[in-house]
Write a structure and sequence with these properties.
Residues 790-815 have a biased composition (Polar residues). Residues 722-855 are annotated as: Disordered. It is a multi-pass membrane protein. This protein has 855 residues and is mainly alpha-helical. Helix content is 49%, strand content 6%. It contains 28 helices and 13 strands. The strands form six sheets. A three-stranded antiparallel beta sheet has the order 11-12-13, with no helix packed on it. Strands 1-2 form a two-stranded antiparallel ribbon. Strands 3-4 form a two-stranded antiparallel sheet. Strand 11 and strand 12 (813-818) form a beta hairpin.
C-alpha cells in the first residue's frame, strides 16, 4: 500500500450556535443576584441527569430501581453460592434415606446442609472465595456509586421543583419537550451556562448526546470493527453491550481516553503533527484493555451465564416462544439512529415499526420447516393429550418418574413448532411491509426496495432485527470474543480513529467539542444524492452515508419546531417541506390514491401512495418527476394508515393532504404558543394533557415519515443510473487500513509513499481543470504540511461515479467499482447484485426487556 502525504485541517464549525454578536459572550452576574443554578460547570452530566430522571419517572422510581439493582446483585451471587455448597442433592432427589421421628415425609429443609458444614465447604473452595471477593469489590463500588447518584439526583430533584416548577408527581405525565422548553426559558433567569445568553434545543441535545453522536458517526463511516468474515458463517456482525462498553471506555471516559473531560477533546488530539505517536499510544492502551478483558473473562462469563439464567428461565418456561421473538439489535439501533436523537425518540420510532418488521420476517418461513413442524406438533400433541387424560383420571400418575417433566417438554415442543407454522390467513406482501418499515426506521439500502421478496434482503434485514435467542447467545459469547476484537481488530484502526476525532471534531461556543456530523450541516457533510446537490462542498470522505445528515436534520427540525437553524439550513428545510407539500397537494387534489388508473400522471409523492416503483415506468428530470404506475391498493397508502395508532381517530387514512393540513395546524399552534405545542399538557387533568401531546406528536411522527419516504424515493430515482452511490456498510470496515479515501484519484508522488496514513485520512483532489490527462501525471501535494483544504464548488473535483481508485504496493492505481452493499469489485468483473447475508450483531441495549418512556 502506498502512503500519501497530504494537507488537511480540522473541520471548523459552520456556525457557533450563538445569537449574532454573542459568539464570544461571557455573562457576568452580580454576586448577590446569583441563583443556586448559576454557572453549572459540568452541563453535560447535569443535562444527562435531568433527562435520566425524567425518563425514570421521578426521584422515587429512580431510587427504588437503584436499590433493587443492588439487591439483585447480592441475590444472584449469594443464591448461586448457596445452591452450589449448601444443598444436599441426594436428599432432594430421594437418593438418600432420611430418618424422621415424627413423620415419614421429606421436607425441603431436610435437603439443606448444616451451617457449619456449608461454611466449611465454602472456605475450602478457592474458586468460590475468588468469586466472592470479586463480587464484593464490585458490589461495594456499585454501592458507593449509588450513594453518590442519590446525592446528585436529589439536586436534580430540587432543580425540577424550584427552577422548573415541576413536582415529581407531575413528571411522569410531562413530555421531554416540555421540560426542555422550561430549561431554555430559565436560562435567562438563572444563567446555568455563562458562555451564552440563550440556550437552544441543539445545545441541550449536543450535551446529552455528545459521545453517542460520535458512535453513530463512526458506525455510519464504517470505522468500528464490527463486521467479520468467518470460514463457515461467512459475513457476520458482532456488536454487544460488552463491546460497546469497551469502545466507550477507550474513546471517551476511561483512564487515558481521548477526552480530558466530558466536553473537551485533549489538545494533542486536535493537532496532526504527532498523529503517529498518538496512534501508537492508543494501540498500546487498546492492547492493555484487551488483556484486562481476557483476564476477567472467566468472572464476566460466569456472571453473564448466571444473570441470563435467572432472568430468562421463568420467561422461557412461561412463554417458550419468547426466544423466537425478535428485537432491534444493538447495531441496528446505532445504524438507524439519527444524529441528535434521544433514546426515547429512537425507541418510539423503532417500536412503531416493530409490528411491520415482525410480519415481514414471518413472510419467509421455510415450507420444509412448516411441514416438519406440523407433524412434530401432531405427534407431541398426541402424547401430551394421553398424559393429560391419565392425569385427570388419576393424579397419582404425576408421581411416576419423569411424567411431569415429559408434560413440560412436550408443551415446549408444541409451542416451538407452532412458531414455524404460518397463519393460514396471512397474505404475502413483502414490498408493502418494507415500505411501512421504511416509514418508521427512515434508513434502508436502495436495493432492498423492489427486492423485498428475496431471501438476501431478508437476511440483511435480520442484521437489524434479530432473534432474542441470538441476542442472548451473543451476550454470553461477548466476554470471550470482545478481547479478541480489541486486540486483533481495533488496534489496527488506531490511526484511523485518531484521524477521525481530529478531522470531525468542532468546538462550539457554549457547548465545547462536538462531532461535526452532529451539526447537521449540509454544506460540510451533505450528500449530493440526497437533495444536497449544489448545496454541499463535502468531499466523499466528509459526506455522511445513507443520507444521515439530511434525514437527521429533518427529524430534528420537526421534533423541535422552535429551533432556529442557520440560514442555509433553513432554506434546505423550507425548500424540502414546500416541495413535499406542493406535490402532495397536487396528488391529492387530482385523484384519490386508491382510485388512480394506469394512464394518470402522478408526482413523486403520488408515487409513494400508489405502489411499488417496479410496477410502472418512471421518468424524471432535474425539476419534474412523474410516474405511471399500476392501479390498485398502494403500499404507501397502507404505510400511512399504519403510521399511527391513533390514525383512525384522526382520520389519517393515507391521504397525504390531510397529513399536511394537520401539520399546518400543528405549526400554527406551535407558533402561537410560547412552548412546543406537542408538549403542552393543558387541560383539567393529566390525561387530557397526555392525549393532546399524543395526538400532536403523532402528527409530527407522520410528517417525518412522509419526508423520509419522499427523500428515499427521490434519492432512488436520481441515483438509478448510479446505484453505487448508496452504501449501507463498506468493505473497509473490517479490512483495517488497507484502502484509501474514495476521493483520491491520482497517483502519489515518490516522496509521499513513505508517509504512514490510514484509509480515513483525508486527501485533496485537484480541480477538474487541473487533472492531467496523461497516465503518468501525478498530483502535486505538499509533504511538509498535513492539511485538507476546504472544498469549493469551483476548485474541488466532486466524484460521484461508480469507480474508486486503490493504490497497489507498487504505486499503481487499480480502479474498482463500488457495489451497493459496500464491497469492492475490479473493473471488468461484474459486481455481485447481492452479498452474502450478514449475521446481525447484538440485540438490545438491555439484556432484560427494558421499558423506555415513549413520548
Amino acid at each position: 500500500m502506498a502512503h500519501i502525504d497530504t494537507e488537511y485541517q480540522r473541520l471548523e464549525a459552520s456556525y457557533s450556535d450563538s445569537p449574532p454578536g454573542e459568539e464570544n459572550l461571557l455573562m457576568h452576574v452580580a454576586e448577590g443576584a446569583k441563583s443556586q443554578w448559576h454557572h453549572i460547570e459540568n452541563l453535560d452530566l447535569f443535562f444527562q441527569r435531568v433527562y435520566n430522571l425524567h425518563q425514570k419517572n421521578g426521584f422515587t422510581c429512580m431510587l427504588m430501581g437503584e436499590i433493587f439493582e443492588l439487591i439483585q446483585l447480592l441475590f444472584v451471587v449469594g443464591f448461586t453460592v448457596f445452591l452450589a455448597n449448601c444443598v444436599d442433592y441426594d436428599v432432594l432427589f430421594a437418593n438418600k434415606f432420611v430418618n424422621h421421628t415424627d413423620s415419614s415425609k421429606v421436607t425441603l429443609p431436610d435437603a439443606f446442609l448444616p451451617t457449619d458444614v456449608c461454611s466449611a465447604r465454602i472456605r475450602h473452595n478457592g474458586f468460590v472465595i475468588f468469586v466472592l471477593i470479586i463480587s464484593g469489590v464490585f458490589w461495594l463500588h456499585r454501592f458507593v456509586k449509588f450513594i453518590y447518584n442519590v446525592c446528585c439526583y436529589w439536586e436534580i430533584r430540587s432543580f425540577y421543583i424550584n427552577a422548573l416548577k415541576m413536582t415529581m408527581s407531575e413528571l411522569p405525565y410531562a413530555t421531554w419537550q416540555e421540560v426542555q422548553a422550561r430549561i431554555v426559558e430559565i436560562q435567562k433567569e438563572h444563567q446555568i451556562c455563562i458562555h451564552k445568553k440563550e440556550l437552544t434545543e441543539l445545545d441541550i441535545y449536543h450535551r446529552i448526546l455528545r459521545f453517542k453522536n460520535y458512535m453513530v458517526a463512526m458506525v455510519n463511516k464504517s470505522l468500528l470493527p464490527v463486521r467479520f468474515r468467518l470460514p463457515v458463517l461467512g459475513e457476520c456482525v458482532f456488536y454487544t453491550r460488552g463491546l460497546k462498553y469497551n469502545f466507550e471506555l477507550i474513546f471517551f471516559w476511561g483512564p487515558g481516553s481521548l477526552f480530558e473531560n466530558e466536553w473537551s477533546l485533549k489538545p494533542e488530539y486536535k493537532r496532526g503533527g504527532n498523529r503517529l505517536e498518538l496512534a501508537d499510544r492508543l494501540a498500546s492502551r487498546i492492547l492493555w484493555i484487551g488483556i484486562a478483558n481476557l483476564l476477567l473473562c472467566p468472572v464476566i462469563l460466569l456472571w453473564q451465564i448466571l444473570n441470563a439464567f435467572f432472568s430468562y428461565t421463568e420467561v422461557i418456561k412461561r412463554e417458550p416462544g419468547s426466544l423466537g421473538a425478535r428485537c432491534w439489535s444493538l447495531y441496528g439501533r446505532c445504524y438507524l439512529r439519527h444524529f441528535n436523537e434521544l433514546d426515547h425518540e429512537l425507541m418510539s420510532r423503532l417500536s412503531k415499526g416493530y409490528k411491520a418488521a415482525s410480519k415481514y420476517m414471518n413472510c419467509f418461513l421455510s415450507p420444509v420447516l412448516t411441514v416438519v413442524a406440523k407433524n412434530v406438533a401432531f405427534f407431541a400433541g398426541s402424547l401430551l393429550a394421553v398424559l393429560i387424560a391419565l392425569t385427570i383420571y388419576d393424579e397419582d400418575v404425576l408421581a411416576v418418574e419423569h411424567v411431569l417433566s415429559s408434560i413440560t417438554l412436550l408443551g415446549v415442543c408444541i409451542t416451538v413448532c407452532r412458531s414455524f407454522i404460518p397463519d393460514k390467513h396471512m397474505v404475502f406482501c413483502p414490498e408493502q411491509l418494507l415500505r411501512v418499515i421504511l416509514a418508521h426506521i427512515h434508513y434502508m439500502p436502495d436495493h432492498w426496495q423492489g427486492n423485498a421478496h428475496r431471501y438476501e434482503t431478508r437476511d440483511q434485514f435480520s442484521q437489524l432485527f434479530q432473534y432474542k435467542a441470538v441476542f442472548i447467545l451473543e451476550e454470553l459469547l461477548s466476554p470471550v470474543v470482545t478481547p479478541i476484537i480489541l486486540i486483533f481488530c481495533l488496534r489496527r484502526k488506531s490511526l484511523e480513529i485518531i484521524d477521525f476525532f481530529r478531522n470531525f471534531t468542532v468546538e462550539v461556543i457554549g457547548v465545547g467539542d462536538t462531532c461535526s456530523f452532529a451539526q447537521m450541516d449540509i454544506r460540510q457533510h451533505g450528500h449530493p444524492a440526497w437533495m444536497s446537490e449544489g448545496k454541499t462542498e463535502a468531499s466523499i470522505y466528509q459526506q455522511a452515508e445513507d443520507g444521515k445528515t439530511e434525514l437527521s436534520l429533518m427529524h430534528f427540525a420537526i421534533t423541535n419546531p422552535h429551533w432556529q437553524p442557520p440560514l442555509e439550513t433553513t432554506h434546505f428545510i423550507s425548500q424540502l417541506k414546500e416541495r413535499v407539500h406542493r406535490e402532495a397537494t397536487g396528488a391529492s387534489a387530482d385523484t384519490h390514491p386508491l382510485s388512480l388508473s394506469e394512464s394518470e400522471p402522478r408526482s413523486l409523492v403520488a408515487n409513494l401512495l400508489a405502489g411499488p416503483p417496479t410496477l410502472g415506468s418512471v421518468h424524471f428530470g432535474r425539476e419534474s418527476l412523474t410516474n405511471h404506475a399500476a392501479a390498485g391498493m398502494s403500499d404507501g397508502a397502507s404505510a400511512l394508515r399504519s403510521l399511527s395508532p391513533v390514525s383512525s381517530s384522526l382520520h389519517l387514512r393515507g391521504s397525504l393532504s390531510a397529513v399536511h393540513r394537520a401539520s399546518g395546524l400543528t405549526s400554527r399552534a406551535m407558533a402561537g404558543s410560547g412552548t412546543d405545542a406537542r408538549t403542552v399538557s393543558s387541560g383539567s387533568s393529566a390525561w387530557e394533557g397526555q392525549l393532546t401531546s399524543l395526538v400532536l406528536s403523532e402528527y409530527a411522527s407522520t410528517e417525518m415519515s412522509i419526508h423520509a419516504l419522499y427523500m428515499h424515493e427521490l434519492h432512488k430515482q436520481q441515483s438509478r443510473a448510479d446505484l453505487s452511490r448508496h452504501t449501507w456498510h463498506r468493505q473497509e470496515s473490517d479490512e483495517s487500513s488497507d484502502s484509501i479515501p474514495d476521493e483520491v484519484r491520482s497517483e502519489p508522488n515518490t516522496h509521499s509513499r513513505n508517509f504512514p496514513r490510514s484509509h480515513t485520512f483525508p486527501t485533496t483532489a485537484p480541480s477538474p481543470s487541473a487533472i492531467p490527462t496523461s497516465a503518468s501525471a501525478t498530483s502535486g501535494t505538499s509533504s511538509g504540511q498535513e492539511r485538507v483544504k476546504p472544498q469549493s464548488s469551483t476548485g474541488q473535483r466532486r466524484h460521484s461515479g461508480p469507480t474508486t481508485d486503490h493504490f497497489s504496493a507498487g504505486g499503481n492505481v487499480t480502479r474498482s467499482a463500488r457495489v451497493p452493499m459496500g464491497g469492492w469489485a475490479e473493473d471488468g468483473q461484474a459486481a455481485p447484485k447481492h452479498h452474502e447475508p450478514l449475521l446481525e450483531e447484538s440485540s438490545e441495549d438491555e439484556m432484560p426487556p427494558h421499558i423506555h418512556k415513549v413520548i
